[in-house]
Amino acid sequence: MPADPLIRVTALGKAFGARLVLGDVSLAVHPGEAVALLGPNGAGKTTLLKILATLTRPTRGAAAVAGHDCARDAERVRRVIALVAHGTWVYDDLTAVENLRFWATLAGLTPSADALAGALAQVELDRVASVPARTFSTGMKRRLGLARLVLAPPRVLLLDEPFAGLDERARKWFEEHLEAVKARGGALLMATHSLGRELAIAGRIAILAGGRIALDAPHGAVGTEEIRRLYALHTEEAS
Amino acid sequence: MADNWGYVLAAYALAALAFGGYWRRLARREHELRQIIAARGARRPQTPYAS
Amino acid sequence: MLTQTLGWIAAVAVIAGVAVALGVAPREATQGNVQRIMYLHVPSVWVAYLAFVVTAVASAVYLRNRAAATDRLAHATTEVGVLFLGVNIATGSIWGKPTWGTWWAWDARLTSVSIVFILFLGALLLRRATEDPERAARSAAVLAIFGALNIYLVHQSVNWWRTLHQPPSLLKAGPAAMPGAILAPLLINFLALGLLAAYFVTRRVRVLAAEAEALA
Amino acid sequence: MTYARRAWIVLWKDLLVERRSKETLNALVFFSLLLLFVFQFTLGPDRERLTAVLPGLLWLGFVLAGLVGLGRTFLLERENDCWEGLLLAPGDKSAIYVGKLAANLVLMGLVEALVLALFTVFFNVDLGPALGGLVPVLALGTLGLAAAGTLFAAMTAHVRARELLFPVLLLPAQVPVLLGTVKATEALLAGAPLGTVGHWLQLLAAADAVYLVVGVLTFEFLLEG
């Protein structure tokens, strides 16, 4: 009997007005598991993540994180998750360390100056800690966003194109960080439409197409070529 | 003060216009929507995805 | 079916109300026949404010339960309340012409009612202008709760503003005792307009539900 | 305790960003100066007319500045999706409202002090004797204006035509505050003691309380995505 899933999505549907984005999605991610969520643009990957992150509510069905319902118990869910999406949550007029202190304090933490410096050092921003973020490149801003994860390690990570905009060193660091989350018994759900690096971490692959999970298989069971084939197949079917 | 009836009637007429107008608007809109729903139900038996 | 029955009852009640107001009720001594406008003017503001109370309660409930039906009730009562308040203001203005000699005097009640009218009209505008329907519902709910609680403050401040002197004499505004010959037609018309408003609200709720269905 | 720290960090962040960018403050100062000219042009040199309408003008200035400044409260949160972060930060969301409100109060306070100073200089009015009574009126009025303004700014942050809708919603809602402050200011400038405007102060305090409670209780629903 496996442990209760950290992420459980049951018969989930979401419509934006007339547009039905998710039809009937069911998915479970267990502790220590990483699932790559593949699918073409507009398949609803981001919407699914947003529902899990309590940013938007499902039209029907249910999504739960660590046993807490994402719509009814959003506040409990927020204590468990971290979202790494397109937004970096960086204020351009604050310095790197000020940005980090702001988000940590707002989350109810009291990080020491050392802890802040340590987190910035991990993402190699320690030398620009006191420089306004306005001058940062996109990659640097993304790294600054990731530094938050170091200060408050989450149990459940929701990732939307996590490696976009990161350079080789940062990717490597982030991969290690994600592996550590897995090793601690956390869960990862990773949305991506590329078949690259994300697959290496993922133990399972789920393809989201046509508003439902078209394929859900362990990574080992299907080779990369097979994934490519299935992916193309389902993608065509949907469009 | 017989002429005051003019104001009274004007007030009641205006109210009748407002309420009547609102009622007509609701009736028309409902009719319109019923037609849209009926037409769509005939054309598309299932409700898949608009993409 | 139920809506239709309510509609017929409301229609009969409104006709009876008008008959009472224009025929049965006696000609008022000081104002003359113009006073008959009051049987339309006064109940419409009562109905409107009652509608806004329902809006505020429904809004508060909606923020808890997030049921689309609750939001439709809030939306419909806002709209119907604005309609009745509009009738109240227009008839007040018509009444003002022969009484004050001008279409618009900055009378305390007319002014405060107009401000409340603009406030709730704003809630309808806000719904239209917000793209995401769920956000629109939440924003309008907050605005309606704010607006309903603001009604008393608006009335009180406008009252004091219109009277140059100190408040005490004004705290118990309004005629102390109304003769039954006036009160009865007022209440009859309040009932009639209330029924009409209830019919409009149920009808509007149905249209809103159909709108959602047509979109889905 | 945590609540206060979370509210404080929002205030700290907003003021720090404002100090660096000076976007809102610059615009407000400039706007207030322009208002002064407009008032002067419309009123002409007539001293008596000026004294009669001064309280109204003063508050017209504050409210117009408020409409310009308060409406921008959440603009900053839209860069890099910070809005998302505010919502997802665990803990009571009303702390964010309180922090934002505090930042707005500081900003409004600065602008009001400046406008008062400019009025004394350019219109040659002596506010000195009435100042003691004016301060509570100013404080209560500004709190009401900012409490509603901060809430309404969140309400209209995602709306098309935000610049138009924000004042359209806020102005009628602010009628009690506007009437209360103008009438009280009028009486105080005419030399009346604070006690004579007690009922207005009560009304302002009641309005502040209502707006604050509604703001604290409903803000989280406006933050939701």
Number of strands of chain D: 0
Tell me the fraction of residues in β-strands of chain D, as a range: under 5%
Mean pLDDT of chain D: 90
Poorly predicted ranges of chain C: 165-176
Question: In what range is the share of β-strand residues of chain C?
Answer: under 5%
Share of helical residues of chain C: over 70%
With helices defined by DSSP (H or I, 4 residues minimum), what is the helix count of chain D?
9
Mean pLDDT of chain C: 87
Tally of domains of chain C? 1
Please tell me about this protein's structure.
The complex is a heterotetramer of chains A (239), B (51), C (216) and D (225). Chain A has 239 residues and is an alpha/beta fold. Chain A has 8 helices and 10 strands. Chain A has helices at 45-52, 74-78, 96-106, 113-122, 138-151, 168-183, 198-201, 224-238, and strands spanning 7-16, 19-29, 34-38, 60-65, 68-69, 81-84, 156-160, 187-192, 204-209, 212-218. In chain A, the strands form 2 sheets. Chain A has a 6-stranded mixed beta sheet with strand order 6-7-8-3-9-10, with helices on both faces. In chain A, strands 2-1-4-5 form a 4-stranded antiparallel beta sheet. In chain A, strand 1 (7-16) and strand 2 (19-29) form a beta hairpin. With 216 residues, chain C is mostly helical. Chain C has one domain. Helices cover 81% and strands 0% of the residues of chain C. In chain C, helix 2 crosses helix 7, helix 3 (68-100) crosses helix 7 and helix 4 packs antiparallel against helix 5 (133-162). The radius of gyration of chain C is 19 Å and the shape is globular. Residues 165-176 of chain C have low confidence and may be disordered. Chain D has one domain (2-223). The two termini of chain D are 27 Å apart. Classes of the chains: A alpha/beta (239), B mainly alpha (51), C mainly alpha (216), D mainly alpha (225). The interface between C and D is medium-sized, with 33 and 32 residues.
SSE map:
The complex is a heterotetramer of chains A (about 240), B (about 50), C (about 220) and D (about 220).
Chain A lengths: L6 E10 L2 E11 L4 E5 L6 H8 L7 E6 L2 E2 L4 H5 L2 E4 L11 H11 L6 H10 L15 H14 L4 E5 L7 H16 L3 E6 L5 H4 L2 E6 L2 E7 L5 H15 L1
Parallel strand pairs in A: 3-8, 3-9, 6-7, 7-8
Antiparallel strand pairs in A: 1-2, 1-4, 4-5, 9-10
Helix pairs in contact in A: 3-5, 4-5
Chain C lengths: L1 H23 L13 H28 L2 H33 L7 H22 L3 H30 L5 H4 L8 H36 L1
Helix pairs in contact in C: 1-7, 2-3, 2-5, 2-7, 3-4, 3-5, 3-7, 4-5
Chain D lengths: L1 H20 L1 H21 L3 H24 L11 H7 L5 H29 L8 H26 L5 H12 L1 H15 L8 H26 L2
Helix pairs in contact in D: 1-5, 2-3, 2-5, 3-5, 3-6, 3-8, 5-6, 5-9, 6-7, 6-8, 6-9, 8-9
Any descriptors?
heterotetramer; A: Rossmann fold; six-stranded mixed sheet; four-stranded antiparallel sheet; 8 helices; 35% helix; 26% strand; C: 216 residues; mainly alpha; 7 helices; globular
